[in-house]
Amino acid sequence: MSANMDETVSVGYEAWADALRSDRILGVSCSDCGATYGTPISVCHDCGSRNLESVDLPTEGTLYSVTRVEVPPTGFEGPYHVGIVQVGAARVTARIETDADDAPPEIDDSVVFSGVMETDDGLPAPVFTTETS
Amino acid sequence: MTRASVVGTGMTTFGVHESSLPELFARAALSAYDDAGVDPADIDAFYFGNAMGGQTENDTHLAPTLATEVGLAGVPAQRFEDACATSANAFKNAVQAVEAGIHDTILVGGVERCTPETGKGTGEMTRIFASASHRQYEQPTGLTFPGVFALLTKRHMHEYGTTEEQLAHVAVKNHGNGTHNPRAHFGSETTVEEVLDSPIVADPFHLMDCCPFSDGAAAVVVTSDDSAASFDGPVDVTGVGHATDLVPLGLKPTLHATQAARDAATQAYEQAGVTADEIDFAEVHDCFTGAEVLASEAIGFFEDGQGGPAAEAGRTALDGDRPINPSGGLKAKGHPIGATGVAQIVELTEQLRGEAGDRQLDDPQRGLAHNLGGDAGTTVISIMEART
Ligand SMILES: [Zn+2]
């Protein structure tokens, strides 16, 4: 049993967060049907398999959607951009940054994984930056 | 086929309330008793929704507390939580329970306080609402709920050319409807210019694209098909669909589809044996103007991509061919989270009884309620019909 539990942990949130802090974005891929997910889950949504393996997602992608948050929750200082980034076959939610004099990020813009931010309570989130053309 | 009937409704004004949650809820519950002509002794169970009382007011285990307040101590009482779809889920479970013969007559309701009366300001409430997004994979980015619906809506705008002006028309229409609803949080009209000139909350949403933080309560008495005939003015529940979608947002195959709403609508239409074309009006979950446009397509009132143009053309107005949110919707009526789902059932019942006053539609026979929770992760769709 303990081996199984260890296996689960190896593709779970802790692994995802550790990888993020080492500049890697981990998704999971189903060994049985090949489906890829941008964030770890324990059971494949497409086929029900538990055989999910960590995969490194590409660090370059395009913006699938993006918004500028001007009224932030407690613990954050706005305004800032949050987007959903298409990286290969998967999507991840991330903070989106631009150079100060760049235009605001828009859907279909190319973005590159550029680091990790951390909340006051210690939760990491990926940061992507729009590529200057 | 009738699954259950609503035989009594009650609702507080939505807005700012000083009352405690139990006392606020009691106002809605007691007027539902009176409308149904029942005493607490006639109620067999209590199905109740409150989404965030633990976070906003340090108040949990509310079902027996509220049951005690309204004379129901002793009956089975349970609380439901599904973010903004909280009390629609309580309603669904009550319909199933009377249909299955587990209980005959049930009080269903919801209550929530979200205004600064809770002691919480905008930043703190924004954080509490964001707790309905994924704790690990979304909250750390600073994503807010206006932000969630902004991401859905921005993709819809990208796919179909939906415009900010079209979104503003949703706010204008719902504010107009709200002026005819004495229980609405906002009783004033607005204009497209006023919406577009208001400050950005999360683009494309301006402040006037967003529903307010509200306090309020709503309650209905639900009874079995067999017992309904002994009440005045029963309105029948003929379908209740309930579906979930992948969470977080990044896992949803098509972000702007709001797939749970489509799946729940399919179930509800099938149960009721009708199509979208046979529904005379809908109350949909317009927490943000873009959410109404997406909902109007997901329930099949309009083809995908046509929700924006339809709003702009006035098709969803009280005198349009597809009226949506005659109550003023969340946008104008207000959105006390856990009360919203049952408040939609209250509006359907009043419209189908012909008791909706200045906002009464022209003899509607069938209405639909669309109550969405979280990042479109939960949707409950209910169909109700006038008894002929
Ligand atoms: Zn699979």
UniProtKB/TrEMBL annotation, chain A:
Q: Which Pfam families match?
A: OB_ChsH2_C, zf-ChsH2
Give residue ranges for domain ChsH2 C-terminal OB-fold.
Answer: 55-109
- Where would I find the ChsH2 rubredoxin-like zinc ribbon domain in this sequence? 18-53
- Name the chain's protein: Zinc ribbon domain-containing protein
Q: Which organism is it from?
A: Halocatena salina
TrEMBL record, chain B:
One Pfam family in the UniProt entry: Thiolase_N
Q: Which SUPFAM superfamilies match?
A: Thiolase-like
Q: Which UniProt keywords apply?
A: Isoprene biosynthesis
The cross-references to InterPro entries, in alphabetical order and at most eight, read: Thiolase (IPR002155), Thiolase-like (IPR016039), Thiolase_C_2 (IPR055140), Thiolase_N (IPR020616)
- Which ranges carry the Thiolase C-terminal domain? 253-385
Q: Which residues form the Thiolase N-terminal domain?
A: 6-225
Q: Which GO terms describe its molecular function?
A: acyltransferase activity, transferring groups other than amino-acyl groups
Q: Which residues form a coiled coil?
A: none
Query: Would you kindly state one Gene Ontology biological process term found in this protein's UniProt entry?
Result: isoprenoid biosynthetic process
ATP-binding recorded as keyword: no
> Which NCBIfam families does the protein's record reference?
PRK06064.1
Q: What is this protein called?
A: Thiolase domain-containing protein
